[in-house]
Amino acid sequence: xxxxxxxxxxxxxxxxxxxxxxxxxxxxxxxxxxxxxxxxxxxxxxxxxxxxxxxxxxxxxxxxxxxxxxxxxxxxxxxxxxxxxxxxxxxxxxxxxxxxxxxxxxxxxxxxxxxxxxxxxxxxxxxxxxxxxxxxxxxxxxxxxxxxxxxxxxxxxxxxxxxxxxxxxxxxxxxxxxxxxxxxxxxxxxxxxxxxxxxxxxxxxxxxxxxxxxxxxxxxxxxxxxxxxxxxxxxxxxxxxxxxxxxxxxxxxxxxxxxxxxxxxxxxxxxxxxxxxxxxxxxxxxxxxxxxxxxxxxxxxxxxxxxxxxxxxxxxxxxxxxxxxxxxxxxxxxxxxxxxxxxxxxxxxxxxxxxxxxxxxxxxxxxxxxxxxxxxxxxxxxxxxxxxxxxxxxxxxxxxxxxxxxxxxxxxxxxxxxxxxx
Length: 422
Known about the structure:
This protein has about 425 residues and is an all-alpha fold. Helix content is about 80%, strand content about 0%. It has 21 helices and no strands.
């Protein structure tokens, strides 16, 4: 068992693609234990044979339609009309826009790309350091997996067998907390900088125009989340509704989604979803093998050796996930670690909604750290910055998010209040 885990770590460190690393390690484990190899194919199929997971490509397609059809730009313009008149207004706009776009795409990478492509160029023109701008966009983009809908939350709910709708509700207050705390950090860091201070007052006419233009785009989160909570449709059906809504609005009302862009959006959604689903399929085999070898009990015993105090154990689990999130892709991390950690957290009497949001927040932080920080890579590419340089600029944002993570972990009100009143 130890050799299997060491082999997986070595392959990931050698920059072998995640699904290949997991697949090679699992195959080696099957050979060493004389398990029939046909079980690999069978378990891979079982891993993705789920109605719930159909929501993944659908939300990816909805987000891509919004980006290509001008809906994301309207959300950015609306955010800018609200806060653009402040010093550092574009930086604040980027966080607020990410929070709004998070209510549609469900993907941190899509959120980062959509907001970054619109805001990084004008931020650089207005005097922002490109590494600072990239770090703001990347950090804001990570909120995309916390504020519902969220693809990682759908995957977590599938693995842990919890309600997707209630988990979505549990993520709202933590997502707002993170967004507000990041905005406060941006305000603090830009208060003495001579940048982005040409707007002197709030423009009511500009706000009204931007709000009217973005109203249809702002409606998607209410349709998606409200439809699930109202019992009108499931999470998967809500994703399908979001696709149709984004297509109709972008194509026939905004008239910015050409058939060429429809094709481009579809190809992007297929490619991205294929990457996610193949990781889920092979990681399911790996997770099954670990469970067959009682890894849950081993890990539980290991943590219990550290302490029997649940608060100390939660700190160690957070540290474990933060480190793993740095090296392991989000989807793979969920498939690998959730089945192992869940029994331990349940034994500690922790609400699944609380530790579900806690785990997703941990992995969102992992999206901001090299070598596999997808948000960092996307924003750095747009800003034409080196990852090492952005990694230095993003440290204050990481510290704020870690503080938020601790609040989410130890203040259950943040994750339990909204589901309790539903």
